[in-house]
Amino acid sequence: MSVPKVSVLMGVQNLEKYISQSIESVLTQTFTDFEFIILDDGSTDRTLEIIKEYAAKDDRIRYFSFPQKMGIAYGCNFTVEKSVGKYLARMDGDDLWEPEKLMLQVEYLDSHPECGVCFTQAKIIDETGKELSSKEANDMNVLFSQTNKTQAQWLHHLFTHGNCLCHPTSVIRKEVFDHINGYHNAFRQLPDFDMWMQLIQFVEFHIIEKPLFLYRWFENNTSKPNPIGISRTYQEYFQLYLHLFDHIPDDLFIESFSDLFICKDSQTEQELACEKAFLLYHHSAGLLPEAGRLAGLTLLTQLLNQDDTRSLLQTKYHFDTFDYVDFESKPIFYSSSYYDIPKGLTKDIVSSTATLFYSTGDSIDGTEFLTTQYQADTGLQQLEFQLPEGTTILRLDPLENHPCVVWYLAAEINGIPLHADPFNAQQEGIWYFDNDPQIGFTLEQPISGTLKIVLGVMPLHQTITSNIKNQLSQVSVSKLYLSKFESNYQQQIGKLNEEKEQQQAVIDNLKEQLYAMTVDRDFNKQQLEAIRNTKAYRVYKKIRGIKK
Q1: 382 or 103, which is more confident?
Q2: Which of 51, 155, 161, 186 is most buried per CB count within 10 Å?
């Protein structure tokens, strides 16, 4: 029996409703030289039974089953270990392939040996197979419609924007996958993104710019934003960032990120180590850049504890332990802060409606919400909502369908502070929303009662939002120098004012002494003149022969 060229790998759990359609879309591919490895990850419904029925009819299918759920990353690594093909094609048990998908990807990989991973674009469908609009799919169709970039451009884009590559569209060279450590077994949210960030550092990516994959988007989809997922994502981003640049070639790192360097001429090992720390602190993105800031601080801690890099940070980057303490003193895990918005950027909106979507289940469906009116662009506003019993998910839409900046946000439920995270916002100490701002709140357990929110919103003109977005990186690159300059300037002004006050005090004291001496002189002069006019002084003068 010949070795198949492609190993199609599927992991599935409790998807009896969709598994038949997914399997059929693989078996009916125009490219047929593949094995089909299906792993049932502890299903409790008819999923495994359906897999066995298909395996009995098509000998390309090899199936495995775990008695209990082992998780996505473990399952992905397991199917890779069982594979024998030259290429690994990933598939999920609720999605669909267009018939020519596999053929086009194999043809490209065969003719481009420099390419390590080939993706396609995707359509987003609902449970019934109906294609969803951007609004219905939370812009997932836009996210998964990427166009081709160079290796350096992909590395830059993935780092500054987060994951935009659809995992089950991928076909990977087996020899390339074997070069890395596989899927991170501890990751639930980012195992695929972690793999892309490893692979892009030594191979090229390519996208077949056609929507050859149908991605099913439904209520229980694990990719949907939710407080629990966001908490996990924070931790996984931090772990990923800590060692992200450990093995990247210097020339690729410089080509990818030199536009964001603090010092454009950085080239040595120590200089690039400093740039990597600052890059993590200022530019790591995705939905949750705060984890990158913490990773950047961790690397700066190490650099400041080494004599050579500590000296380099001070002399070349004008960064010392006091600057580190300043970084360390700023909040990490929320991005709201006071910020001066330049005049001319605001859009006049006298009144606005803030909408609070909530759910007592696993996801927000848009049918349960509360609203309140407030005055936009008039300073801090206090909003208040009464939540029903058992609320598990919260999302605030502060300014529906309007570009804006949320420059301050603080929330508490029954006096207990809540952590807030923006969805699809550019973040640089404040939250820039291109349109339709949405903010999620992390709930540790079901809640009810009074939710109080203090909100600062600046509406923006649509025409200037793209300029703001393009200039964010430039702003953050110079932020280190700007903050240091402002700090030094204020210190110098304070020192000058203090010296001026001290000098004025000396002058005032001298004036008082001079005035006292003048008074004493005048008094003594009067006393002396009075003495001279006495008869006794004239006698004394005559006896002594004192001349005037």
Answers
A1: 103
A2: 51
**Whether residue 384 is found in the same domain as residue 439:** yes
Say whether both 213 and 256 belong to one domain: no
Burial environment of residue 419 by CB neighbours within 10 A (0 to 12, 13 to 18, 19 or more)? middle
In this structure, of 78-82, 168-172, 257-261, 363-367, the range with the lowest mean pLDDT score is 363-367
* 384 pLDDT higher than 80: yes
Whether 462 and 532 share a structural domain: no
Single out the residue of 131, 133, 130, 103 nearest to residue 118, CA to CA. Answer: 103
What one-character DSSP code corresponds to residue 164?
-
Separation CA 147–CA 156 (nearest Å): 14
- If asked whether residues 367 and 306 sit together in one domain, one would say no
**Above 90 in pLDDT, residue 493?**
no
Q: Which residues contact 462 (CB under 8 A, 6 or more apart)?
A: 347, 403
Residues 322 and 362 occupy one common structural domain: no
Residue 18 near residue 93, CB atoms below 8 Å: yes
Tell whether 307 and 365 lie within a shared domain: no
- Does residue 43 have a pLDDT over 60? yes
* pTM of the entire predicted model: 0.62
| Nearest Cα residue to 320 out of 336, 309, 333, 331 | 309
Residue 5 contacts residue 27 (beta carbons within 8 Å) = no
Distance CA 207, CA 148 (A): 6
Q: How far is residue 199's CA from residue 219's CA, in Å, rounded to a whole number? A: 31
Number of domains in the chain: 4
Rounded Cα distance, 252 and 249, in Å: 5
Mean pLDDT over 195-205 rounds to 95
Same domain for 285 and 414, yes or no, is no
> Which residue range is the domain that position 246 belongs to?
240-329
| C-alpha closest to that of 334 among 256, 193, 442 | 442
